[in-house]
Amino acid sequence: MNVTTEHTERFKELLEEVYTEVDLLKKQLKEAKREQLHLIKKLEEERGKQTDIFSAISESERLAMRQQITSLIHKIDSHLEGN
Asked: Is 79 helix (H, G, I), strand (E, B) or coil?
């Protein structure tokens, strides 16, 4: 075999390895996209189940919490003014 033929054969071998690697990467990407879609769907389901703190408590509890917070703010203000 001459040198050109050897180089051609080696090139074909390397090219085949590249094609094989590309195919493998495409399959991995496809699987990753499928998993991502699954996780997005799962996240959206969980978000749908969530409620914020204010919708989970009654109006009277909200008013009581507001009063407590206001009272704490006044106490902090009084303490800071005293120093």
From this structure: helix
pLDDT one-digit tens code per residue, 34-54? 999 999 999 998 887 777 666
CA dist 24 and 28 (Å) reads: 6
- Read off the amino acid at residue 28: Q
pTM metric for this prediction: 0.53
Query: According to the 3-state scheme, what is the secondary structure of 17-76?
Result: HHHHHHHHHHHHHHHHHHHHHHHHHHHHHHHHHCCCCCCCCCHHHHHHHHHHHHHHHHHH
Residues 6+ apart with CB under 8 A from 57: 65
